[in-house]
Amino acid sequence: MKILNSSTLLVSLIISSCLWKLSDQHNHKDCIHQCGERAIPYPFGIGPDYCSLSPDFAVSCISFSSSSQIPFLKKLNLEIFEVRNSDFPKFYGTVFVKIPSVTACNDTEIRWNGPNLGNSIFSFYSQDSLMIPSKNVFVSVGCHGYALFYNQYGDSWGCTSVCTPDNKDSLSTPDRMDLCYGFNNCCLISDMMVSDQYRISVSVHNGLKHCRSAYLISQDYLATLESAVAPMPAVPVVLHWINKDMFSDWEKKRFFFQLLYPTLVSFILACCCVGICWRCKTRKGRKEIKLRKKYFMGRLEEQRFNQEEADKIKLFTEKELNKATEKFNENRILGRGGQGTVYKGMLSDGKLIAVKRSGSINENQWMEYINEVIILSQVNHRNVVKLLGCCLETKSLLLVYEFISNGTLRELIHTPSEEFQVTWEIRLRIASEVAGAIAYLHSACSTPIFHRDIKSSNILLDHKYTAKVCDFGISRSTSMDETHITTGVRGTFGYFDPQYFITRRFSEKSDVYSFGVVLVEILTGQKPIRIAIDDDPTSFVMQFMSVTDESAIHQMLDPIILASHNIIEYIMEVVYLAKRCLNPLGTGRPTMTHVASELACLRQKLLSAKHASIIDKSGPSQDAKLVLTSQAPSEFN
Asked: What is the Cα–Cα distance from 214 to 506, expressed in whole angstroms?
């Protein structure tokens, strides 16, 4: 240990001496690096141009009184809350600035555009989470209404929260930060992406004496709050910068010397500790895997699986899936979603698979995950993507499904091809297959399953355009006597049931509503929600529901399906079925079993009508002609 300490000290002295010779001298007498009680370290500076690295980093110190001085970024006119320099301040770092919050009260809607960082070096989002881990989150506080967040690309996120019975004040909030998930007057979104500009919309529609506040806030600052989250006039937001173009030869030498120091020290320490650390880490990992497998086998026994049924749920090894996906190569990605990333893979026997990898979870969540795997493994329907197995050896969730080759229904409808017309026959067949699959999940499974995220992008199509319902990441199973489950709002904006959004109670009728939205997409070829950064979100589904005149409905339908005028009555039957599925009240919607039955009957009628039309156009068959001839009277008798 003495030798180790001596070596570390020697390396530190050598590197420090080199850095001292290469260090910058920014303490010019005309440069100020303090404003009031806030430090303004380089590359920021107050004074002449040479006091800061560039105009982006120039700071003005404004006096509001004899004892109060506040620093502002000159270019953006934003108050500086704190500067956190990295080891290489000319290269990257963060600065915390104060940005106003948005509050709406008394049955109003407030829209507010955040500062535009487009012409500066700063960004709200760091593309390198290892180098700059700090991030911003979107928080909304209040009992009624909702808050929406838009980025500069038109993408949107939203959340709402409700008051608990103990909190009568519309802006009271929980005492603990980890309870900010929607039930305690506070909701939080952490997975939105914003780079240069954003917009916030806050709406309150529940009468007087209610308010809602929303703001972008630094996650680091949020974690330091000792009291509850509450509306604040201005909150700290972190801005990132990475300046890749300001490395001179001299600065490159300094950079590599600074980089070399922690590397050498880490290497020396690692050589002494790697053996012990490896043993401890692998021992814990082996123990976790053993416990997971033991729990997995125990659950199989509880469900009374026989050996043949148990063998169908394959436990893949991490090595096997790494080989199948080429270590989860980026080129193997089939798609990304809220529940994870899907990779295409090939097993050693040549079988194609799809591997979904999501985030890491703790051991308690692993038990819930295994329960869902066992439940979904019992689903056996030709229009539901087959779950082949899972992997219990990694921190992240790894689910293995059969590979479906022809994309999604969303791509088929909203990305039309001149070579392939999606006719009404194909659309009706797909709708009937999806309805049958959901009805099976609700009624025919040994344990009813609510999908909770029915949408066109979760309906896959195979090489024959047969529908396959997929993505059961947020699905929940229920007992036969349960009519609903109470849970936090999960799903996709534009598809989830408005009654579920208000009550937090998800039932089979909530899946019916989502399927109704898919039916509208199939009928019209339009997306359910249209959003632009400068416009309000427009619900095409609401427009569809508000139209009652049949001629107006015809104008909303996809021209492709109107090409067959002799079946317009069947199309209108599906229109009215979609409207029943989209009834605002769950009690007014049909069950999925009823929906599947109606679509199956319509499909049979369509096939019969088509067959009759073919006979009418081609004339009676040869056999029919012989029958007609034999029955005709002879004029020679």
From this structure: 26
Q: Which CATH class is domain 307-403?
A: alpha beta
- Identify whether 616 is a catalytic site residue: no
Burial of residue 430 (CB within 10 Å: 0-12, 13-18, 19+) is buried
Q: Which residues pair with 294 in a beta bridge?
A: none
pLDDT band at 373 (very low <50, low <70, confident <90, very high): confident
Model-wide pTM > 0.70: no
Q: Which residues pair with 524 in a beta bridge?
A: none
Contact 531, 150 (CB under 8 A): yes
DSSP H helices, 23-65, are none
Question: Is residue 340 pLDDT above 60, yes or no?
Answer: yes
* pLDDT-derived band at 620, boundaries 50, 70, 90: low
Listed by start position, the domains of the chain span 1-26+259-302, 31-75, 82-246, 307-403, 407-637
CA separation for the pair 559, 632 (Å, rounded): 46
What CA–CA distance (Å, rounded) separates 541 from 526?
Answer: 9
The three-class DSSP label of residue 212 is: strand
Measured distance CA(54)–CA(90) in Å, rounded: 10
For residue 566, the surrounding DSSP H or E stretch is none
CB 584 within 8 A of CB 413: no
Amino acid at 404: I
Distance CA 222, CA 416 (A): 46
As a CATH number, domain 407-637 is 1.10.510.10
Summarised one tens digit per residue, pLDDT across range 67-92 is: 789 999 999 999 999 998 776 666 77
pLDDT tier, 602 (very low <50, low <70, confident <90, very high otherwise): very high
DSSP collapsed to 3 states, 441-478:
HHHHCCCCEECCCCCHHHEEECCCCCEEECCCCCCEEC
316-354 burial, b if ≥16 CB within 10 A, otherwise e? beeebbbebbeebeeebebbeeebbbbbbbeeeeeeebb
User: Rounded to whole angstroms, how far apart are CA atoms 126 and 133?
Assistant: 8
Q: CA of 108: how far to CAs of 111, 114, 238, in Å? A: 10, 19, 29
**Distance (Å, whole) CA 517 – CA 457:** 12
Residue 223 pLDDT > 50, yes or no? yes
Rounded to an integer, what distance in angstroms lies between the CA atom of residue 108 and that of residue 213?
A: 12
User: In this predicted structure, what is the pLDDT of residue 382?
Assistant: 92
Considering the candidates 107, 128, 175, 453, report the single residue annotated as catalytic.
453
Which residue in 494, 590, 496 sits closest to 544, CA to CA?
494
> Do the domains spanning 307-403 and 407-637 agree at the CATH topology level?
no
Q: Which residues are CB-contacts of 40 (< 8 A; sequence separation ≥ 6)?
A: 32, 33, 34, 46, 59, 61, 71, 80, 83
